[in-house]
Amino acid sequence: MTTVLLLNGPNLGILGDREPEIYGYDTVDDIAKAVAEEVAEAGWEVVPIQDDHEGNLVQAVHAHRKSTVGAIVNPGALMMAGWSLRDALAAYPAPWIEVHLSNVWAREQFRHESILAPLAGGVVVGLGAFGYRLAARALLHLCDAQPAHRS
């Protein structure tokens, strides 16, 4: 079975309750279901992982680097300081898309630069939970453009 890694970083485990005026009311489980719907027609399944610890996210990227066709990554605040996550994603051989629920450029200045974005196949910001669906569609497109190299 072809799988896609869905990686959510720190503080995203409390989506739905956490500042819903910024992040919306969808939970990480709702988001995982939405991504699964988007990729189901292609026969893909989703491996959802949310963790508040950068080292665990790094381990997840390494553990799934050869078993997934691509990834959707919301690093949360690790977009600004997650250097070990950046190194793990640099070694991840498949395409991946960075996602942020809020428009990071409409927020505080410190959120305006992602250390991960230059490595990503694309970035989706400011569209709430729907952004994950768009990221899934983009990943399907990117993987269609790639030679089949894993299942």
Please describe what this structure looks like.
The model is unreliable at 145-151 (pLDDT under 50). The protein has one domain: 3-Layer(aba) Sandwich (Rossmann fold). It is globular, with a radius of gyration of 14 Å. Helix 2 runs parallel beside helix 6. Helices cover 36% and strands 19% of the residues. With 151 residues, it is of the alpha/beta class. A five-stranded parallel β-sheet has the order 2-1-3-4-5, with helices on both faces. Catalyzes a trans-dehydration via an enolate intermediate. Homododecamer. One of its GO terms (molecular function) is 3-dehydroquinate dehydratase activity. Belongs to the type-II 3-dehydroquinase family. Pathway: Metabolic intermediate biosynthesis; chorismate biosynthesis; chorismate from D-erythrose 4-phosphate and phosphoenolpyruvate: step 3/7.
Which SSEs are present, and which pair or pack?
Layout: E1 2-8, H1 20-23, H2 28-40, E2 44-50, H3 54-63, E3 70-74, H4 78-81, H5 83-90, E4 96-100, E5 122-125, H6 130-145
Parallel strand pairs: 1-2, 1-3, 3-4, 4-5
Helix pairs in contact: 2-6, 3-5
